[in-house]
Give the backbone structure.
Amino acid sequence: MVAEEYVLVTGGAGFIGSHTIVELLEKDIPVIVVDNMTNAVGGKEDDELPPVLQRIKSIVPPEKSQRMVFIKGSYGDEEILAKIFTKYKVSSVMHFGGFKAVGESKKLPMMYYSNNLGGSMKLIQVMQKHGVTKMIFSSSATVYSEPGPEDLPLTEKCPTGNCTCPYASTKYFIENMLKDLCHADPSWTVISLRYFNPVGAHPSGSIGEDPKGIPNNLMPYIAQVAVKRRSHLDIFGNDYPTKDGTGVRDYVHIVDLAKGHTAALDVLDQKKGFVAYNLGTGVGTSVLEMLKCFSEAVGRELPFKMCDRRPGDVAEVYCDPSLAAKELNWRATKTVADMCRDLWSFQSKNPNGYAS
Ligand code: UD1
């Protein structure tokens, strides 16, 4: 009997990882989830499946979801990784794990470098040791050097680096490390997916984004205003040179984004070396437009206040997603209204996230 080949998913209990696991299982691909649960709600006991993975079992048919193995641990823990690679046949790694709060990374840069960069180095070294040389890496639009209006839409050829915070630097450095590795050893293939602004939730309303503490990002914040966990939304600046003065971003539905990963997996064996793709819609939407659209999904006006700009924010960011369309055969299909509807479905059913 041929041993089953698994995709190892680091950070699989997180927002993007969990939605990608649904897509993998739906395609009959067995997954091993590694997550130390520092940024996600865990089970009551260590060996209990965390709520997000239990809910995945309610979305995906049992014959598919039984092909998910959960291991509580850190993706940078060589001992745990060695055990996994010895016990299971791993064909590739989807590397979602890592800290991601911009403000926190400015206060605690070494924690970010140690976890994101140090952890990724360990993971790559263990992969090397076990002859696993295929990776899909969770990168971010934040690796692009601060874009001005003349740089839009951002293509993969736009300059990267000169990052504005340690979190962004870790994504940039990991990409460079992976590029060097692919140059040095032609057996490696890395697809780096540069996410624009992933939002929304699974249409079932069972899984979604559940940030710990005060949300840093727009949509989870608005969603918490809607369930009255926050009094109002602060809009960071209405004097940008944009259509209505508020910041413009390229929001992409989380299920579209998750499908971008299975599309990348489909071509991983045909690709050589390091390749990066933008995952976005190519359409820019302002903060006021998002607020209006989400208010429509909720069915009432949501309170907001205009405030000063947030330091480090740029006026407008959106991508050119045509390379992913051409080479991954992937396109975002869902609208901003779909994103708002599905986010509201999750948030209204789970006002306190997975702890609800
Ligand atoms: C932010 C991070 C980026 C990270 C991404 C993850 C910063 C400077 N950038 O991107 O590094 O990769 O999240 O998804 O933090 N806004 C408000 N009020 C809020 C929150 C946000 O008006 O309470 C505005 C922002 O000014 C911006 C837009 O909403 O114009 C989107 O903000 P956000 O969701 O934080 O995403 P980014 O800033 O694009």
User: Anything to note?
Assistant: The mean pLDDT is 96.
